[in-house]
Prior knowledge:
Number of strands: 13
Structural class: alpha/beta
Number of helices: 11
Largest sheet: 8 strands, parallel
Helix content: 40-55%
CATH superfamily of the largest domain: NAD(P)-binding Rossmann-like Domain
Amino acid sequence: MTRFLVTGSYGQIGTELVGALRKKYGGKNVIATGRKKPPEILTKDGPYLHLDILDPNQIHSMLVNNDIDIIIHNASVLSGVGEKNPQLAYRTNVEGGYNILEAARVLKLDQVMIPSSIAAFGPSTPRENTPNDVIMRPTSAYGVTKVFIELWGEYYTKRFGVDFRSLRYPGIISSEALPGGGTTDYAVEIFYEALKNKKYTSFLDKGTYLPMMYMPDCIKCTIDLIEADESKLKHRSFNITAMSFAPEEIAAEIKKHIPEFEMSYEPDFRQAIAETWPASLDDSVATEEWGWTPDYDLAAMTKDMLEKLSKKLGIKY
């Protein structure tokens, strides 16, 4: 059975990805790692180990001692936090990513997955239906680090035969884990505030369209790419999306379920970041090479989010 090591496992994506992998591959075969004390969800069905991704010796020892085949490197400083502390973004995203790829090369692991992001694009990129292969000149620290990882990973594939794979995640919406300081966080926060207070102040302005994805589709596409036949992959980094919407559109969808919900707008520094990102993505390359197709649109996601969060928070609507 394939054995996985997941970094950043207590993050928004990692928390649910670990659970999905353990369900499919067995709890003992999925090692969750991080630097913080883990939530119970990461320890009840399998091992959790402390890992500093800036320590190459610890990475190598952990991979060898746990007989790891595939690394999923989710540990990352996101866009909002990265602009406040670009030095931390560099160390975590660039140096940490380098350490993971180098370990995969030296130990000849089967595969390494390191997510990218729509932040890898920039203001010179076409914003509508952004192609998979296009100029990428980001203006955020987070975006710059993601371009590095894509190019370095693809170099390691060509130069050393490392099976590197990457997904350019859009904004991810989850009913389980809270977001971690990104520019699309409003699309999660809005549901909590709608249920708790019947109002929300968006830090992105009206008309700010961004590609988005519901967490079940995020987990689905991640596992699908991991399991894809390498011989069919012409690319290593893939656009991936499920829907695109602006803040007022998700607000309108929520109002269908909570009529008294009200939305206001106070754009902050993240508005400038969002305006350099794609408004929509062309993910046809992922569809062609490994059969990607999403399950959730805005209406289905909104209904499911409100149902799950209302139970979680004990709030009727």
